[in-house]
UniProtKB/TrEMBL annotation:
Pfam families: DUF4440 (PF14534)
UniProt cross-references to InterPro entries, sorted A to Z: DUF4440, NTF2-like_dom_sf
The species this protein was found in: freshwater metagenome
Residue span, DUF4440 domain: 8-117
Record protein name field: Unannotated protein
SUPFAM superfamilies in the record: NTF2-like
Gene3D superfamilies: 3.10.450.50
């Protein structure tokens, strides 16, 4: 069980690294194709990777606003339940315009498939 928790927390960190690098494949390798997403910048539920990619396409273009300079995930609480995992954590996000750090609260549901653990639902809120 501890191995699974370590894997999921490492995956969260790798996805956030992928965000900072602009590397979607690094993020998407952990996402199930039918996963659902409550994105902090979107009102409707994003259905599957297709829906997530549509939401990504609506985000401001690079260079059109303050740039994220750092993302620091912390305070994970990860529980495992018969082939499912729930990962709750916070993310402190800093911007190039030096405005106050934005804190994001995140909950992700992971499921074990024959080919590994994949995120099947993600919910993020800006606090």
């Amino acid at each position: 069980m501890e191995e699974v928790k370590k894997y999921i927390w490492a995956a969260v960190n790798e996805m956030l690294t992928g965000f900072m690098e602009g590397n979607r494949p690094k993020i998407d390798q952990f996402l199930h194709e039918d996963a659902t997403f409550w994105d902090s910048g979107e009102v409707p539920l994003c259905l599957g990777l297709k829906g997530l990619n549509e939401a990504r396409a609506r985000r401001p273009a690079a260079g059109t606003g303050p740039k994220v300079t750092s993302i620091v995930p912390h305070s994970p609480v990860i529980d495992i339940y018969d082939g499912f995992a729930i990962c709750r954590h916070y993310v402190d996000t800093n911007y190039s315009d030096n405005r106050t750090t934005r804190v994001i609260r995140n909950t992700a549901v992971w499921k074990k498939f024959p080919n590994g653990w994949f995120l099947i639902h993600n919910h993020e809120d800006v606090l």
